[in-house]
Design brief:
Shape: rod-shaped
Radius of gyration: 42 Å
CATH superfamily of the largest domain: Globins
Order of helices and strands: HHHHHHHHEHEEHEEHEE
CATH architecture of the largest domain: Orthogonal Bundle
Strand content: 5-15%
Helix content: 55-70%
Number of domains: 2
Largest sheet: 5 strands, mixed
Structural class: alpha+beta
Length: 405
């Protein structure tokens, strides 16, 4: 059995394999000596060589087969990796093209050396080899550039996304600042209004006492009522400022739900019965203990009960505590009061928003305090109301605040 004679291009491929180390070193010397290849000077020899030895192996395989298409997938894979590595190394596209052009020149020089030493290697063989080298290196260059461009586009998309998110957050913050400014102005206007009413009432009381001593008792009653209203305003503003100013995470602790329920009933019953209203209560016996901030939960419930009592003239107030689905429990406060108009539903939790006129005392801060406390306690607020029929507020809390991220 005789060996199949080796073709001229395969002979050149074997020559390239045998000279791979020398050719790689020659190419790296050319690269390091090129003033336009700035990033290459920052690399080690190993980093600079990268996938070029594998690309050279792919080229040799193409010369063996005398057909680039047969080995194109392998060359493409190495070329893509080469482009990706060069992108990460900080290469510009022109640098990538320049170093591959130098590699092409190195291979062209090797081809001339081989052609001069091999008598059976004709001009036709040399042209075919030169064409294969040119096609292969053009394919490597194009594939590497595409990979660089693809990585650059991905990076641009990533930066664009970050910029869009930052811009969105900036707009939200600007809106929050604007809303905060408006809120502070509203607080200022409201406090000035209430202080003026307070001073006017005292002025009227003093005038009555001065002009008609017999009416002093009525004047003092007016003054006392106005002082009580002003005290309520100051107390709720202090409470609201404390809630807004407390940026620390709420301390969660297990507590007995029944004990909390009894405290709420004891606290709210006198004011409710003083208005001739009925108090209905219900506490789920199966809900024994929850983990949350007990004082803040109690503060939420008391504000809801106070609000319900204030806006209910006849009928009843209901307090109910129980489970609310998997992992949650709820506090529900219902009343048969004046209700909330549909047009006011979106702003009931705003500062100084009130459901009634000046005939019902109040600051309009109760539900704003509830909203802020529920945010801290991860409570979900639900409410239903029919004007003239009453309102129901239900707050759903997690059974264990410590498990909420």
């Amino acid at each position: 059995m005789t060996d199949t004679p080796k073709g001229p291009l395969r002979g050149f491929a074997d020559f390239l394999r045998s000279e791979r180390v020398r050719l790689t070193e020659q190419w790296m010397k050319e690269v390091f000596g090129d003033v336009d290849l700035i990033e290459a000077d920052k690399l080690t020899y190993e980093q600079l060589a990268d996938h070029l030895p594998e690309i050279l192996d792919g080229l040799c395989a193409a010369l063996d087969a005398e057909d680039l298409e047969k080995v194109e997938p392998a060359i493409e894979r190495d070329a893509r990796m080469h482009g990706l590595v060069r992108w990460r190394q900080g290469y510009r596209i022109e640098e990538l093209v320049r170093e591959l052009d130098l590699f092409h020149q190195t291979l062209a020089g090797a081809l001339e050396t081989f052609a001069d030493t091999e008598s059976g290697f004709t001009r036709r063989h040399e042209r075919r080899a030169r064409r294969l080298i040119a096609e292969a290196l053009s394919f490597v260059t194009l594939t590497s550039i595409r990979e660089v461009v693809s990585e650059r586009d991905r990076k641009i998309d990533d930066y664009t996304g970050k910029l869009e998110r930052a811009n969105h957050e900036l707009k939200l913050n600007q809106r929050l600042v604007s809303d905060l400014h408006e809120s502070r102005m509203q607080i200022t206007r409201s406090v000035v209004h209430d202080l003026r009413n307070f001073l006017n009432a005292f002025s009227v009381a003093l005038t009555l006492i001065g002009r008609a001593p017999a009416k002093a008792e009525a004047a003092l009653t007016l003054a006392h009522r106005q002082a009580a209203d002003m005290k309520q305003l100051v107390d709720q503003m202090v409470e609201y400022s404390v809630v807004l100013g407390d940026n620390s995470p709420p301390e969660a602790e297990p507590f007995d739900v029944r004990v909390l329920f009894d405290e709420l009933v004891t606290s709210c019953r006198p004011a409710i019965e003083a208005k001739g209203l009925r108090l209905k209560t219900a506490c789920d016996a199966e809900l024994v203990s929850v983990t949350s901030n007990r004082l803040k939960v109690k503060q939420v419930a008391l504000n809801l009960l106070s609000n319900a009592t204030k806006y209910t003239a006849t009928g009843e107030i209901e307090l109910a505590i129980g489970g609310a689905g998997e992992g949650h429990w709820s506090i529900r406060v219902s009343d048969t009061g004046i209700g909330i108009a549909a047009s006011d539903a979106d702003r009931v939790f705003d500062e100084f928003e009130r459901a009634a006129g000046d005939d019902i005392p109040g600051t309009g801060l109760g539900l704003a305090i509830v909203k802020e406390l529920c945010r801290v306690l991860h409570g979900q607020i639900r409410f239903e109301s029919r004007e003239g029929r009453g309102t129901t507020f239900e707050i759903c809390f997690p059974l264990d605040l410590g498990l909420v991220e």
